[in-house]
Write a structure and sequence with these properties.
Length: 240
């Protein structure tokens, strides 16, 4: 990937088989999840992980041409069914990289770029990012570290001392039903005037868990993020 594209990308997609994970950047923060007919379901990424992935793609210099011709693609694991796809958009143009099988020594991986029929081989340094499970990318903390680093001394609200260590159970891909009444609302204020607001709703699709509508707002930076995650009954009870 051209290094000059790294800072221009604000949306990309990872695809493996039938599984797709979307990434979007909002006010400098990366979120991952899915765009679906039922809504947009995203949560903050692990701080720095999406940025490191994009930079790693742009830093790859070792490309060795292996073969060319459409007839050879499946033998290298490069197909919609077998490949791992990275798709991104820059200035209205869609770009695509497809990673196929490893070579026989398992020291390299086959690669094809867009409509280019040539097949190349690169190293396997990017394999650690080849996941389409949101759990591998999502910041696991209820007080997301994607918005800033806080200590308990920053917390201005009466909450459990371990609130910064409490984790959610993943992105909620279920929309909160209209006219639902929350089981609990919790506002956590920070010393820099930012705050989190959590609204807890019963999760009708899973026992012993709750849907949580999260709002983070920082009046000074004028940043506002809204998303939904799930928490276990144990976590909910910690915050009651």
């Amino acid at each position: 990937m051209n290094p000059r594209y790294v800072d221009e990308i604000d949306f990309f997609e990872l695809k493996s088989g039938d599984y797709i994970l979307d990434f979007k950047k909002q006010d400098g923060v990366w979120f991952c999840g899915n765009l679906t007919e039922d809504g947009n379901f995203f949560a903050p990424c692990i701080p720095g992980k999406a940025e490191t992935f994009l930079k790693s793609l742009s830093d790859v210099k070792e490309y060795k041409k292996i073969s060319g011709g459409k007839g050879n693609l499946s033998s290298y694991g490069i197909s919609e069914e077998e490949g791992f796809f990275f798709r991104y958009e820059v200035s209205g143009n869609i770009f695509e990289l497809c990673f196929g099988d490893k070579n026989f020594t398992e020291t390299g991986r086959y690669l094809k770029s867009g409509n280019n029929e040539n097949i190349f081989q690169t190293d396997i340094s990017l394999d650690k990012y080849f996941y389409t499970s949101s759990g591998q990318w999502t910041d696991p903390y209820l007080i997301s570290r994607a918005f800033g680093k806080y200590s308990f001394q920053d917390v201005q609200s009466k909450v459990p001392e371990d609130i910064l260590e409490l984790r959610h159970s993943g992105i909620s891909f279920v929309a909160v039903p209209e006219n639902s009444v929350s089981e609990k609302t919790l506002k956590v204020e920070m010393g820099d005037t930012s705050f989190y607001r959590f609204e807890f709703f019963e999760n009708y699709e899973s026992e012993n868990s709750f849907l949580v509508s999260v709002t983070y707002e920082n009046p000074l930076s004028k940043k506002l993020f809204e998303y939904s995650v799930k928490v276990s009954e144990w976590t909910y009870n910690k915050l009651k």
